[in-house]
Design a protein that fits this description.
By secondary structure, the protein is of the alpha/beta class. The chain has two domains: 239 residues, Aldehyde Dehydrogenase, Chain A, domain 1; 194 residues, 3-Layer(aba) Sandwich (Aldehyde Dehydrogenase, Chain A, domain 2). Helix content is 38%, strand content 18%. The protein has 16 helices and 23 strands. β2 and β3 form a beta hairpin. α5 runs parallel beside α6. This is Acyl-CoA reductase.
Length: 517
């Protein structure tokens, strides 16, 4: 495939996709900007900042950033809506949420194409993000009566501050469950991407009478309002440790219910293992979306005796990865390409990743594989500044950022160990993680080792993920603060139970974990 043979598939051009979104919800879109959803109506407030696509560096639309005062007005309106919604019968809440889900299902392809342009998701993964959100909420609609029991809504709306990588299956999914539980919701659009998709989704939610608020703005400007406002009943945050730490500091003296999901260096340990064909399939899937997932595995901790066999399995996988423009085809009637990943979220992030790789090598890391953008699938002349070819580094130095933190991109690090104690120490390098896995032929030994891995979920000869439907989700150590979520835990996190109830989660005064994770 040569670059000159590729072009945008007709109908997937940004102007066409944005036009269809605006036709579905004209109230939410201006001629050159998105609107903010406040007190049930879309308003052209805020100073617009131009959104740029990581796919090809093109300008998308304006993201209007509201002031703290405008955000405060929106929170007060959401609190008023919350009081009414909290008394709405569960059957009516279920009917409205279900209607919103079906409206989004009708718009599914356009929601997915918006994600492709805004955050660079390949078509298959963008569709999966939308589908997981909608299918998950359908399950909650069926289960919500039993989960609620005698539980009641919180005293105020749930404030949601989420990262850009999963706008539908994390943010919208959580909001719809919060609504089912009787809470109004406030969401801040991620500044880096996903705002247009979220605007369309929230327009369809608002049309069904759901009390939703959608605001755009800088985290520093709006944090005091969205985190500390006394009207807010709970805060749900998904993001990195730096921003999460600032949010946590803002919550210290409020006593507010919270769910803070933060990053961790998820590790895959390999010890006394031989099923290399089985591992190869997991390695391939692990590169989906360029490892820009909170449950990606960017660290492999490998027993020295197995390094040669591991590399014989790993290197062909990383060399076979397909990446490039998510919407480029050779012929007009071709299906959209099946890619492992597209760009990272921005040209700035791509530069940061390349600098981290260079720094790690300067500090002693050995490059096992460094791909080239020449191997990517691109349209001739397109801007590729937000793309990063896959890379794998052996033994990054202790002073390297890649040794202790998650790269959030297609960069793996491999650490060699000689003892079980060293294996565990290297797997626990980031003071807590969301997931981890152990590849070991002796499952009894694997389960024994797993008990000492500081991750919320530990897979034995398989990866772990956020999970769907009834599966709980959380983190250990610094990767999570506050209530755990997933299944009935998500409903418990955003409702009031019996007096003195000890919720599952990580809190200053206690930690409580569900039995089966």
């Amino acid at each position: 495939m040569t670059a000159t043979s590729l072009h945008l598939k007709p109908g997937t051009e940004w102007a066409a996709v944005l036009g269809r979104a605006a036709d579905r919800a004209p109230e939410a879109f201006g001629t050159d900007r998105l609107h903010n959803l406040v007190d049930g109506s879309w308003r052209p407030i805020g100073d617009p900042e131009t959104l740029v696509s990581p796919v090809d560096g093109s300008k998308l639309t304006g993201l209007p950033k509201v002031s703290a005062g405008e955000a405060q007005h929106a929170v007060l309106a959401a609190a008023a809506a919350h009081r009414e919604w909290a008394t709405t019968p569960v059957a009516e809440r279920k009917a409205r949420v279900s209607a919103a889900v079906e409206a989004m299902a009708d718009a599914r392809d356009d929601l997915a194409l918006l994600l492709a342009w805004e955050i660079g998701k390949p078509w298959r993964l963008a569709c999966a993000d939308v589908d997981r959100a909608l299918d998950g909420v359908r399950w909650y609609v069926e289960e919500i009566d039993g989960m609620l029991g005698d539980r009641t809504p919180l005293d105020g709306p749930v404030s949601n501050i989420a990262s850009w990588n999963y706008p539908m299956s994390v943010l919208v999914h959580a909001e719809l469950v919060q609504l089912l539980a009787g809470n109004a919701v406030v969401a801040k659009t991620p500044s880096q991407g996903g705002a247009t998709c979220l605007t369309l989704a929230h327009a369809l939610m608002a049309r069904e009478g759901l009390p939703v608020t959608l605001l755009s703005g800088g985290g520093a400007e709006l944090s005091s309002v969205l985190v500390r406002s006394p009207e807010v009943g709970a805060l749900a945050f998904v993001g990195g440790r730096s921003n999460g730490g600032k949010v946590a500091a803002g919550l210290l003296d409020t006593g507010k219910r919270h769910m803070l999901e933060q990053e961790g260096l998820n590790a895959w340990g390999i010890w006394e293992f031989s099923d290399w064909d089985g591992l190869a399939a997991h390695l391939k899937k692990g590169f989906e979306y360029g490892k820009q997932r909170c449950t990606a595995y960017p660290r492999y901790v490998v027993q020295r005796e197995l390094v040669d066999q591991f590399l014989a399995t790993y290197l062909p996988v990383v060399q076979s990865l397909r990446f490039g423009h998510p919407l480029a085809v050779e012929h007009d009637d071709d299906e959209l390409p099946v890619l492992d990943f597209g760009p990272v979220i921005s040209a700035g992030k791509a530069t940061e990743l390349r600098e981290r790789v260079s720094d790690a090598m300067h500090r002693g890391a050995v490059p096992l594989w460094r791909g080239s953008l020449a191997d990517g699938r691109f349209i001739a002349g397109q801007d590729t500044s937000a793309y990063v070819a896959p890379a794998a580094l052996l033994s990054p130095g202790g002073a390297s950022a890649l040794m202790h933190s998650e790269p959030f991109g297609p960069v793996d690090t491999i650490v060699v160990v000689d003892s079980e104690a060293e294996l565990l120490a290297q797997m626990n390098a980031s003071n807590g993680a969301l997931v981890a896995s152990l590849a070991c032929d002796d499952e009894e030994k694997a389960h024994r080792l797993a008990r000492e891995v500081q991750a919320f979920k530990v897979g034995i000869n398989k990866p772990r993920s956020r999970g769907d439907r009834a599966e709980p989700f959380g983190g250990r150590g610094a990767s999570w603060l506050g209530c755990f979520v997933g299944g009935e835990l998500l409903v418990q996190a955003v409702t009031q139970g019996p007096e003195g109830e000890l919720l599952y989660g990580n809190f200053p005064e206690h930690s409580r974990y569900p039995a089966a994770i």
